Amino acid sequence: MKNSWLNGLFMCALLLVWSADALAATINVTLNTNWTTIAPISADTVITKNGATITVDVANGECASINIGSDVGVVGQRGIGTLAFNSNSQVTVGK
Question: Are 91 and 35 a contacting pair, CB within 8 Å?
Answer without folding.
Answer: yes
